[in-house]
# Entry
Amino acid sequence: MSDSPIYVPPKIWQWNKENGGSWASINRPVAGATHEKELPVGRHPLQLYSLATPNGVKVTIMLEELLELGFSGAEYDAWLIRISEGDQFGSGFVAVNPNSKIPALLDCSAPIPLRVFESGSILLYLAEKFRALLPVDTATRAECLSWLFWQMGSAPYLGGGFGHFYAYAPMKFEYGIDRFAMEVKRELDVLDRRLAQSEYLAGSDYTIADIAVWPWYGALMQGRLYDAAEFLQVQEYVNLKRWTEKIAQRPAVQRGRKVNRISGELSDQLHERHEVSDFATKTQDKV
Ligand SMILES: N[C@@H](CCC(=O)N[C@@H](CS)C(=O)NCC(=O)O)C(=O)O
# Structure
C-alpha cells in the first residue's frame, strides 16, 4: 500500500495482500475452497454452521424463538465456524454456502439434505417451514418481507461501509466515515419513523423482520457494535430504543445471542449448541 494520501488507480487492479485492514488475512478476490475439510453433522434435523456476528445471531434467535413456540422440529446443532481462521473456505462449508460466509444451514429432515444460505433466505425458509413469525394476510406479509429485504440491503452500509471505515480500516479516512455515518444515521431515522407508527416493523406482531433487524441496529443502539453509539448519537432515536429494549428482554433472544459467540463475557459465550441444557451447563465460564 502506498503512503501517499492521493491514490491514482493503476490501469489494472492487483490483489495487494498487505493492505493492513483488520480482515486483510481472510479477504480474497476469488471464490471456492482453499482446503479439504468435512463439516460435522449432529443428531438434530437442522445443522447450523455459524458464528455470533449479527448475521449469525439472526438465525440462532429464529431457531430459539421457534423452539420457544413449541416446534420440536426446529431442534438444531450449532457448529462454530471461526471466520478469522478461514473455516469458511473448507470444502464442506463451501458445499453448503458457495459464498463462503456464515450463516449456513443444512436441513437434514428433507428427503435429501438441503442447504440454505444467506441469513434472510434462512429466516424465510424457516418461517415458511414452520408457518411461524411470518404474517399470513397479504398486506402484513408484504410489509414484513419489505423490512426483511430492507435489512438485507441496508446492513452492508452499516457493516461493510460504516463499520469498516470507522472500526476496521488501517487508517481513519474522513471521506469514508462521513459518507457511511450519514447513511447509517438515515437508516436509523427510517427505522425510528416506522417504529413511531407501529409496535414492531411489520405491524402489531413480532416477525422475522424484527429478527433480521435487531442483531444489527439493536446492537448499535445498545452500544455493542463498533463502539459507535456516542459517535452516532443513537439516543435520539427514541422509538427504535423502545423496540430495541423490548426485544432484548425476550428469552429466545437472550439465548440466541449466546450461541456460537467467542468474544465478550464468558457467561455469554456458548461456542457450540447441541441441547437446550447447554445454556445452563456449557457457557464458557462453566466448562
Ligand atoms: N449477506 C450475507 C452476509 C454474510 C456475511 O457477511 N457473513 C460474514 C460474517 S457477518 C462472514 O462470514 N465473513 C467471512 C468472510 O467474508 O470471509 C448474509 O446475510 O448471510
